[in-house]
Amino acid sequence: MKKIIVSPYRHLNLSDRVTIYSLKEQGKTLRNIARIVSRDVGTISRELKRNKSRVDLEYFPVKAHDNFVRRALRQRTKAPLKNHETYLYVREKLREQWSPEEIAGRIKIDKPHLSICFETIYSYIYARGKR
User: In a 3-state reduction of DSSP, which class is residue 59?
Assistant: First the structure.
């Protein structure tokens, strides 16, 4: 019988954020808040720092949750070279010493459902070199 391992980590939800806000407004310490919402004190600290309003440095739970959703969507859409299949094709051809122009021209023939601009490939190469 296989043992299922469940990760203890879970993202804060709107309810957690509202609880953090109300406890903070009551003057509770970060450690007390962390104990009440069953989270690490570092999680609470990062949440409050990351989601303070820029104008008056206040924490608003609904705005914080909106920021979280926006960041999560932006992260998922920032994949290198459009999609996984395009990424694999480009990486393979770069390893074979093809130029980005050759790759961009040939992908239309080898995989008609895919396309990529040679400038995108150059941007990818440049970004990889800066790491």
Answer: strand
Q: Which residues of 1-13 are buried (b: 16+ CB within 10 A; e: fewer)?
A: eeeeeeeeeeebe
d(CA 90, CA 14): 40
DSSP type of residue 83: S
Summarised one tens digit per residue, pLDDT across range 94-126 is 999 999 999 999 999 999 999 999 999 998 898
* Residue 72: Cβ-neighbour burial (10 angstroms; 0-12, 13-18, 19+): exposed
Q: Which of 75, 64, 69 is nearest to 16 (CA)?
A: 64
Q: Residue 65 pLDDT more than 90?
A: yes
Span 4-60, pLDDT tens digits: 554 567 899 999 999 999 999 999 999 999 999 999 999 999 999 999 988 888 999
Beta carbons within 10 angstroms of residue 53's beta carbon: 11
Q: Is 52 helix (H, G, I), strand (E, B) or coil?
A: strand
Helices 118-129 + 84-95 axis angle, to 10: 80
Reduced to 3 states (helix: H, G, I; strand: E, B; else coil), residue 54 is: coil
